[in-house]
Design goal:
It is built from twelve helices and 14 strands. By secondary structure, the chain is an alpha/beta fold.
Length: 324
């Protein structure tokens, strides 16, 4: 069966992850507040939240690395606990911090982590070869990690986490501090895992990456589920409209004031070279702004209109930028 068809068929099955009413307390601190989550099979699922929102706690509970006070967690339709060894073999984790052994070569590192799940050496040899090829480290397989660039070490980190061919993989900030070439290779690899029928849970502070690779995105804060949907669905949930930029060297103050007075305009700033306008949703925003500027007689240069971004969604829903 074609791998894409396999992935599509998997999407109709039971969720890869189902979390209901999850509560986790640290003393008086409520880290997870009756948190719910559904991750479909065969999707890349983005989990976003500011620092301290409960993301890491939720993931560690799902992986059965943490106990919790109330709720239920099912993975592939089965409850997961500390001794769910067969279920855990179907999972993979790529942590934010590169976790490899500097005294072992690239190949030996991948083989070691794969051996934690696969005892048969012959089968493992094929899995290691596949993982090396998957992350593009063929020419470095006998090199130790200390000799690799940061981007190549990240790729090795991924190979160690996916060599045993897990059905569900957690990626925590996989592209932090990597070069553009390695970033593109990592993102393409994550898409390939999904297209081959795998399921990915992805956390990142890079909103453009989340929008690029994630099929659905959940925003959480204070241990609660705030919003869920595709990137376009999330953008449709907020009042923020486009941001309009207009180049002009002779814009009169009266025109700037008139733009500020438009019903859909939240803010307009002019620095003598460029007018920056932030709007709420509206069908005629750019036309209304342009009509005022044209009537003012000012010389107008480049005009751009940028639609709302995921960062706008995040800021409106949580009151903070993702990196705060």
């Amino acid at each position: 069966m074609d791998t894409t068809l396999q992935s599509q068929a998997a999407r109709g099955q039971d969720p890869a992850i189902r979390v209901r009413g999850l509560v986790k307390r640290y003393g008086e601190t409520l880290a997870l507040d009756y948190f719910d989550l559904d991750v479909r099979r065969g999707e890349i699922f983005g989990l976003l939240g500011p620092n301290g929102s409960g993301k890491t706690t939720a993931i560690n509970c799902i992986l059965a690395l943490l106990t919790y006070d109330e709720g239920r967690i099912d993975v592939f339709g089965e409850p997961i606990g500390p001794t769910s060894y067969a279920l855990k073999r179907r999972l993979g984790v790529v942590p934010q911090e590169v976790a490899v052994f500097d005294e072992l070569t690239v190949e030996q590192n991948i083989d070691y982590f794969c051996s934690l799940y696969v005892a048969d050496r012959r089968r493992r040899r094929k899995l290691v070869d596949d993982a090396v090829a998957f992350v593009g480290l063929g020419e470095y397989r006998r090199v130790r990690p200390g000799k690799l660039s940061g981007g190549l070490r990240r790729r090795l980190n991924i190979a160690c986490g996916i060599a045993h061919r897990p059905e569900l993989v957690f990626f925590d900030e996989p592209t932090v501090a990597v070069d553009p070439q390695s970033r593109n290779a990592i993102l393409e690899g994550i898409r390939s895992l999904r297209d081959e029928g795998g399921t990915v849970v992805y956390t990142s502070h890079y909103m453009e990456e989340v929008e690029q690779v994630c099929d659905r995105i959940l925003i959480m804060d204070h241990g609660r589920h705030l919003a869920l949907g595709t990137a376009d669905e999330l953008k449709a949930m907020i009042d923020v409209g486009e941001r309009i930029s207009v180049e002009s060297l002779d814009l009169p103050e009266s025109a700037v004031e008139a733009v500020r007075g438009l019903p859909a305009v939240d803010e307009a700033r002019y620095d003598g070279r460029e007018l920056q306008v932030r709007c709420r949703r509206g069908e005629r925003n750019i036309a209304d702004v342009f009509a005022i500027l044209e009537a003012s007689g000012a010389n107008i240069g480049h005009v751009t209109s940028r639609p709302p971004t995921l960062n706008d969604v995040f800021l409106e829903m949580t009151g903070t930028a993702l990196r705060d």
